[in-house]
Each structure stands twice: as structure tokens, then as C-alpha cells.
Amino acid sequence: MADKANESVVLSTRVRLARNLKDLPFPNMQSADQAQQVIDRTALALSRSDMKNDFALTYLRANSESENIALIEDHLISPDLVKASQRAAVFINKEKTISIMVGEEDDIRIQAIMNGRSLNEALDLANKADDSIAENETYAFHDTLGYLTACPSNTGTGMRASLMLHLPALTVTHQIEQIGRAVSRLGLTIRGFYGEGSQASGSIYQLSNQVTLGFSENDIVKMLNDTADQIIEREMKARYSIYNSNKTKFGDKLMRSFGMLKYAMSIDSKELYKFWSDLRLAISLGIQTEITNETADKLLSLQPAELSRLAGKAMTPEERDIYRAQCVKNILNEQLP
Amino acid sequence: MADKANESVVLSTRVRLARNLKDLPFPNMQSADQAQQVIDRTALALSRSDMKNDFALTYLRANSESENIALIEDHLISPDLVKASQRAAVFINKEKTISIMVGEEDDIRIQAIMNGRSLNEALDLANKADDSIAENETYAFHDTLGYLTACPSNTGTGMRASLMLHLPALTVTHQIEQIGRAVSRLGLTIRGFYGEGSQASGSIYQLSNQVTLGFSENDIVKMLNDTADQIIEREMKARYSIYNSNKTKFGDKLMRSFGMLKYAMSIDSKELYKFWSDLRLAISLGIQTEITNETADKLLSLQPAELSRLAGKAMTPEERDIYRAQCVKNILNEQLP
Asked: Which residues 246-265 in chain A show a CB within 8 A of chain B?
């Protein structure tokens, strides 16, 4: 699979490991003291490891609501962690490539996030954090079943690995539904990453493993990689097929979206996804050469809480859309807002 | 009336004088020889005048069809003159500010065209050409009625003076219909300049006198100027009223059209008028400061025959829309195509 196709389709990679400490109930049955104990024991374990200087500990209850939402927008924590915010905490490294949530569904959820297609690297990174804790703590582990988790669907490796894929051509040609059925037979799942229901905002999908039991981490990563190869190939074929059927009409549509990004004075988040998706497509087809994928992807950060943080104030939805349009212009001019 | 408002609303001025030579039937009753006689006598009269070096004579039958259509697009000749192309000719000065059509409905139709609001100057210019012919020829003239014309509606001064007005706010608020009724009571008329029926493409209207008999040229010009003052004032009030009711929403709409002009890869003529109209509005409201009215108005020249001339070849409608989008970009970059 060519690098170009990977860059055109794969936005980012995530690997998440679910772990629980031995001799404690799962979080939903823990007392407040026990919940605090998990945080303290995780902090202590990390402090005794090679990664002792890597992480900053944040108690969610010490954050404002919008600070926590911004962490969700950055995918550093889950909405479920915020629901447990009175007891929950998160360790995040400086590069924001690793977050360790404490007090979600499981005691510990280690997550590694990397740009582009980097399943092996993300797994290595998650494993490194996992090992740092495991050296100094004891996980709930069963010789046959593997890592024990609050929900049986995570038991075994406790791993969920995923690739964020931009699939506009498979979406518009409705091939995505058929692909969804095909990957489910492999123990994988593909679903819209932003937006609700089956309507994937920006045509961004998350391809991940459903099955955690009976396969090694490396088996799962290989399965994901092989499946991603096929999806990427079909997406690229579909892109060129649409483009070649009417270059002017399709190119015109994509460049008009770029004109909107450059000149609109108000952009709501739904539009932002659409324009971003068209920009990404235009880059991949060589229609747009001014903007890089990296710059384009910065646009996806312009979500409500992040915009409030950048503006340094709360905003009405209308003010936010105006501010978003300004930030879009700044990013496209290669200046971070 | 402030200059700014005039520049924002008045695009151009035209004055047309209808004249017929004495002792000849009107064109629709002329033999081919008589039609040629009118051309020869007009040429001779001009050659004996101070303007003898100003004009180039073009026989329409010597032009290609697209060359004649380009002259129509430039408003230098009328579609009716092209219908009579086997017998008709036109004298055009270098600056393209005066055209003298020979063999239209009347023997001679002198037309002066100027940018912006210049009724008196355009009348002076038309009069100068008129005098140049009259010094050396005898017009059909009646002491009581004035200049005699093929159609009685032009008899008297033979003059039709008009202002091209950009009235987007009066269009969208439907005040234009009421204004149409009001001006008709003054012997004036206002109608869409481009496009068919009442739907004025680009919200461009022509305000002109209907009545040619019983008023002097100067009376008519004064009436037009006074009426234009009121229309311009109402248009500017309506613009600010719409803009101030929701600056972001309206500004966003206008700037999105600008984004289309800058980035669309295909633009049809209907869209061009719309985007041009929004650009003009954005300039008048101070939202757009990058582009001048003068540059914006060059976009209006991008009509089918002119595009073929620029491209140096015939084009399909699809090719033309692509080429138009390229020419738009060139004009906006202040480079003539």
C-alpha cells in the first residue's frame, strides 16, 4: 500500500488497553476511598518506572466543565470518564500521545494516539506505559482468560486498536454499508467517528477490533492492517472513479468548499466537517496543492470547547461560528490561532 | 447625493439619439441602394466634420456572427441591427464611448456610453456626434413635432437617456415593483437589463425615459437625475437595513459568493451575475475592500461571445463555464485575461 494512499485515507491511530488492579472491585462497585486508592497506586507505580517524569496527573473535579470537554474533543478522555468526574483522574504525557484514564469503566485505560497509520508504533507506546505500571503493580489477570475487565467484551487482551479513516467516496457510493457487514465477520467494526447514528460527519470512520479474546495483540493488529489495506484501496479506486467521470464538476465542487473555508464569515461544525472532507479529497486528487493534510487536519480541532479555550471566553453558538471561521482562516494561512 | 452612493448604485449611463435623413423613406421601406446611401451620406458627413478621424466604419455583413454578438454584448449595437446585418453598418469611436448605428429602426442612432453616473456628459457626447452629422446633412425634422422617427414613440427629441442601476436591496425587498409603477407616472420606465422578463440578472436595472415628445433633452435629463437620486437613496437605506439586521449572516452570504468567484472551477453566466452582485454589495458595505468596483464590473464582460473572442475559439457551454471561471480569477488578480 503506497504511502500516498495511506496519508490520503488514514487520519490517526489509537490503541487502548483496559486494565484493573488486583484485589479491588471494578469502579462501579468501588467506594470513594477505593477509587482514590486506584489513582494513588497508579501514580506510585508510574513514579517508580522509567516514565516517572512523563506524565501530569489531572483530577477531573479540579477542571472546569469546558476544560473537561476540551479533553474529550482531543480524545484524551472519554465522555464516560467525565460522568465519573468526582472520582476520576487522567495522566497525560507532554506530547499528548498517551493518556491513562483512571476510574472509567475499568480502573485503568491506557490509550496511545498517533497521527497517520501507526498501529505497531501505537501498540508499542501503549505497551510501554502498560509495562511501567505492571512493573510496580499487580493487574487482575486470569491465566486462561487474560486481563479481566468490567465488561466481558474487553476481557482477554483488553485491547481495542483502531484506525481513523476518511472514506468520502465509499460513503457517497454507499459501499460503506457493505464494508461494515464484511468487517463484522472478521470480528472488526467500522462506524462513524463524529456525528450521530450512521451519518458520519466528514465521512470519518473508526475501524476497530470487536473481539479481544482468543487472539494476540499482534494478531489483531495484523487483521486490522490487512483489512485497512483493502478498504484504502477501494476508497482510492472510488475517488478516482468519481473524479474521472467528471473532473470539472467534481473539482469545482471541492474547490467551492475551499472558497467557503477561505471566505465564509461564519462556519458551523457540521459545515466544517464537510468543507474539511472536500479539502482532504482535493488534496488527495492533486486538485489542491496549496494546503497540506497536516494543516487541513488542524481544522478538525475547532470544536466548541477548544474554540472557547482559544477565545478565552464562553461564546454563544452564533459567536462561536464566527470565531470558528476566523480560526479556519488563521490555520489555512499556516498561522495557529 | 454622495459620490459613494452613486458609485455603489450607478453602473453606467447611456444616451441615444434617433435621427433620419431627409428625403428618404425609413429603413423598413428602403431599397438596398437607399440603405447604402444612408451609410455613405453619414460617412461623408462625419468626414467633413471635426470628428472625421474619430470613427471606424464596420459593415455587419463583413463580421462573423460571433463578432456581431460581441458588439451586442458590449452594447455598441442592438440585436435589431444584427437582424438587418445585410444592409447595416456601425461607426464606433476608439474609446468605444460613441457608436452610430446605421440602418436600424431609424436611419441613424447615435449612442453615447459612459461609466458611472454621467447623464450630462453622455448627452454632450451624443450631441457632439449629432452636430457633426447635422452640419453636413439634413435630418427629417418637423417644426412642431421635432425629429421624425420610424416609430412615433421616439418622435420629438428622439432621445432615450438611461442609467444602469444596481438595485439588489430594492429587488430582494420587492420595492422595485412599486418603484416601477411610480416612475411610469413620470414618463420613465425601469426594467431588468440582463435576463428575461421581470427577473433582473444581477439586480441590474435600466432607468430611462419613455416620453420623447413635449420635453427638452435637458428636462428629461433632469427628471432622470431627480428620480435616480430618490431610487439611490432608497436602495442604500434598504442595503443598510438588511445588513444591520444581521451583519454576520449577510456578510457571510456575500463573502461566500466571493469565495466562489475566487475558487470555483466552473461558473455559468447566471451565477456570474449573482456573485458579481454580491461582490458589488460587499464593496458598498465595506465588507470587501480588496476589490474595486471597476475590477468587479469587468466581470460583467465575461459573456459568451466575448469569452470565445478571448479564448480565440468556439467553445461548448461546459468549456465556456470553465474558461469563464479562469477569466474571473484573472480579473480578480487585476490581470486582464
From this structure: 248-249, 251-252, 255-256, 258-265
Give the phi and the psi of residue B133 in degrees, each rounded to 5.
-75, -45
CA distance A85 to chain B (A): 38
pLDDT higher than threshold 50 for residue A337: no
Q: Flag if B259 and A256 touch (Cβ within 8 Å).
A: yes
CA–CA separation, B315 and A97 (whole Å)? 55
Contacts of B260 in chain A (CB under 8 A): 256, 259
pLDDT confidence of residue B199: 57
pLDDT exceeds cutoff 70 at B63: yes
- Give Cα separations from B102 to A318, B25, B29 (angstroms): 60, 14, 14
Report phi then psi at A166, rounded to 5: -95, 110
Q: Which of B256, B318, B322 is facing A263, going by the closest CB pair?
A: B256
Q: Per DSSP, which regions of chain A are E strands? A: 10-19, 55-59, 89-93, 98-102, 108-115, 141-142, 146-147, 159-166, 188-192, 204-209
- Cβ atoms < 10 Å from Cβ of B30: 17
With CA atoms as reference, the chain A residue closest to B249 would be A266
Q: How far, in Å, CA of B111 to CA of A304, rounded?
A: 60
Q: What is the pLDDT of residue A2?
A: 67
Q: How far is A173 from chain B (nearest CA, A)?
A: 23
> Which chain A residues touch B258 with a CB distance below 8 Å?
259, 263
Confidence (pLDDT) at B2: 67
With CB atoms and an 8 Å threshold, state whether A259 touches B255.
no
Which residues of chain B neighbour A265 with C-beta distances below 8 Å? 248, 251-252, 255
Closest alpha carbon to B158 in B173, B170, B168, B148: B148
* Residues forming beta bridges with residue A163, ordered by sequence position: A13, A207
**What is the ipTM score, two decimals?**
0.80
CB B139 within 8 A of CB B19: yes
Closest-CA residue of B relative to A258 is: B263
Q: Are B139 and B130 contacting, i.e. CB atoms less than 8 angstroms apart?
A: no
Q: Which residues pair with A18 in a beta bridge?
A: A109
Task: Check pLDDT > 70 for residue B336.
Answer: no
What is the rounded distance in angstroms from the CA atom of residue A25 to the CA atom of residue A6?
42
Q: What is the pLDDT of residues A264-318, one digit of tens each?
A: 999 999 999 999 999 999 999 999 888 999 999 999 999 988 899 899 998 999 9
- Nearest CB neighbour to A322, from listed B248, B256, B325: B248
How many residue pairs from chains A and B have C-beta atoms closer than 8 A?
52
- Judging by DSSP bridges, how do beta strands A141-142 and A55-59 pair with one another? unpaired
